[in-house]
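Q: For a teaching handout, I want to show students what a protein-ligand complex looks like in token form. Below are the inputs, and the small molecule is uridine-5'-diphosphate. Please produce the holo structure.
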Amino acid sequence: MRVAVTGGGGFLGSHLCEALMRRGDSVVCLDNFSTGEPENIAHLRAHPAFEFLHTDVSVAVDVPGRIDAVAHLASPASPPDYLRRPLQTLAVGSRGTENCLRLARRHDARFVLASTSEVYGDPLVHPQGEDYWGNVNPVGPRSVYDEAKRYAEAVSAAYRRSHSVNAGILRIFNTYGPRMRPQDGRVVSSFITQALAGEPLTIYGDGKQTRSFCYVDDLVRGIVAMLDSPEAGPFNLGNPAERTVTELAELVLGITGATSELQYHPLPVDDPVRRRPVITRAQERLGWYPEVGIEEGLRRTVEWFAARPRDVAAGAAAIRGGQQDGPAVMSAGTAAEAGF
Ligand code: NAD
Ligand code: UDP
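A: Here is the structure, written as tokens, with uridine-5'-diphosphate included.
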């Protein structure tokens, strides 16, 4: 296949590009590096099966030549990232998704949307199956991400119904692994960065909130299976092994051997209390299930971070200085480009 991967310069996207190329597909990677890193794909650039288009998919998506599938991953994903880019996040979830659906329609190509467990908001049902419609605050700070993804799901389903686009939806639960940015503010990258830098681990709230953490290689296998399938979904993809944030901190301390203290900070607004996927549908329809346990996944991730001490030190300083936090001012140029 020749697959267009939007957000291919990011954490999940770069692993997806690699996985597709490993099995002989060619990849057109589209990214504007707003939250991705050129380094994530530097090793792929010279490969004849890899093309890169520096583009903002909220503005336009134009891929020369034939496309067999579109994997739409472009979007900020870390809460500090999307809270700093509220309008860009809404734009890429809405207009960006429409642009990618139009591309898929033009080529009669498979389309897979990387949606999120955040469509369940702060869930009132536990664990979360795909039939649960969620509990999202439509005007809270996180709504720029949650509602953008809910719209992205709605427009993907409508293109499937109205235009017969072969669109499928994946709801991805917290995924971690090599190539997360040390300063991206997500819990796994932050704890590993802080532990390796000998700094306190920042626990938001009382640390009793839960998440279910999936290792990146498992998750990417699920995306590839969905690209190969004609299923509409939505399917949850995640590892159902649920942990509290405090348990995660203790695991990271154990693996790194760090003696950092746990430092408590206020819980962010609308931070979900618990989250665990029901994955029966992905298991039955895609034959997919996660294989890497959290200890092994964290060990591999710590190894990757530990090999980059300068990035870790800079990341720890950025987290300490709150640079990953707070609203970013959108320049007039960026706003105009994104259509606002
Ligand atoms: P990431 O921030 O590392 O990657 C996102 C990529 O999209 C970056 O390379 C960024 O530069 C690019 N991008 C953002 N806006 C763009 C635009 N307008 N045009 C072109 N490129 C743009 O995040 P990630 O963790 O790799 O997440 C990838 C996708 O998976 C996202 O859609 C996210 O919502 C979804 N997802 C991820 C997780 C997770 O735990 N990692 C969980 C649920 C959903
Ligand atoms: N979290 C934390 N310390 C951090 C970063 C995050 O305690 O330094 C908490 C956060 O409040 C949330 C959980 O860890 O309850 C997962 O956060 P993350 O940003 O990784 O993902 P999401 O909230 O999108 O699930």
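A: Two things your students might notice: The first helix runs from residue 11 to 22. The CA atoms of residues 58 and 136 lie 24 Å apart.
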